[in-house]
Amino acid sequence: MVSITGIIEIIHIINDKVKDFEMKTIGILGGMSPESTASYYLEINRAVNLALGGNASAKLLISSVDFEEIVQCQKAGDWQKAGKILAEQAKLLEQAGADGILLATNTMHKVARPIIDNISVPFLHILDAVADSIKAKGLNKVALLGTAFTMSDNFYRDGLIERGITPVVPDEETQKEIHRIIFEELCIGKILPQSKTFYLKTIEKLTALGAEGVILGCTEIGLLINQADSTLPFFDTALLHSEMAVDFVLEK
């Protein structure tokens, strides 16, 4: 039987641990697009509330950039300018009190390096979250869907390979249509059944090429298709990245 003194000591220990715990603040580089940034905001807050209860919510700072400015940089191939814009915003988030920085988009991880070089707090890389989840399921060859930049550029594919994952991508014409659907539909909140059918048929073709799972490598794709649409395991990058953020702010 525990004595009254022992119970009091236990209470003091618990209270001290509660006092010592302080949720970290995450800085989100968002707006690329607003649709996916909204999903990050909701997913992170819901998970923090589930973990802490009551009216708890995450400590978030968000810099929502003008997506059109970033899109024009992409079209012009001016990644240096895009990197400068995001690096400056990341520094502002750090100065405002962010303990870590999250870039809420797959494509713009192409300019992760200038962001990392401009801050002194941790950068939560989306590829770390994705690769860890894929390996946890014992898979290594997966389909990659995303913007044309993500599917065709070495920054993303090589990043996966470096982390032990082999990506399988669609042919060039299919990539163009996947890209068009993202920018002309999903980024502005337009969800069309024919586009969903196109994505699912693409997944079937990549499965025939040996894909064991599917990376939804654009943070908007999860708005169009989800796990219920396929027997292959889906790796929704926005959700996995959000989970990574939650672990960070709760110091797991």
Automatic annotation (TrEMBL):
Q: Where are the transmembrane segments?
A: none
User: Origin, by domain of life?
Assistant: Bacteria
Q: Does the keyword Isomerase apply?
A: yes
Could you tell me the keywords of this UniProt record? Isomerase
Q: Name one GO molecular function term.
A: amino-acid racemase activity
Signal peptide residues are: none
Q: Report the coiled-coil segments.
A: none
Pfam families named in the record: Asp_Glu_race (PF01177)
Q: Which InterPro entries does this one have? A: Asp/Glu/hydantoin_racemase, Asp/Glu_race, Asp/Glu_racemase_AS_2, Asp_race
Family, per entry? Belongs to the aspartate/glutamate racemases family.
Protein name stated in the entry: RacX protein
What is the source species?
Mannheimia succiniciproducens (strain KCTC 0769BP / MBEL55E)
